[in-house]
Amino acid sequence: MVVLREESEESLNQLFRALADGTRRDILARAIVEAPTVSGLAAHYEMSFAAVQKHVAVLQRAGLVRKRANGREQLVSTDHERLKRATELLDSYEVLWRQRVAQLDDVLREGE
Fold it and tell me: Are 62 and 14 in contact (CB under 8 A)?
């Protein structure tokens, strides 16, 4: 898979590990719509502020979000290029899958 080799295994693991958690996907979705503060995000979840900060840190290490200071608050925004990269990677898996299905269809037609 050519597309997957353009990026280190660890980088891909961080990306998909970050996306594997429902809370992190929700935080990412909120950051796509607006640039919420970390404390604003924490208000949406039944977990501690520190736990939400840890989820944001995982997303940040994966390159999916950025934090920037706004006074005493930290604003969380999406890195759209990194999110696009995740989409491209998943699309490459879909292409492989579709090729395999097409090959299977060819084999089945030969048997008719």
Answer: yes
The answer, yes or no, to whether residue 18 has pLDDT greater than 90, is yes
Please tell me the predicted confidence (pLDDT) of residue 1: 47
Q: In terms of Cα–Cα distance, which of 80, 15, 66 is closest to 36?
A: 66
Average pLDDT, the chain: 92
Tell me 6's DSSP state: T
Read off the amino acid at residue 91. D
Burial class (CB in 10 A: 0-12, 13-18, 19+), 56: buried
Q: How confident is the model at residue 7, as a pLDDT?
A: 81
Q: Do the beta carbons of residue 67 and residue 60 sit within 8 Å? A: yes
Q: Enter the pTM of the model.
A: 0.82
Closest alpha carbon to 63 in 47, 76, 75, 79: 79
Looking at residue 89, its amino acid is L
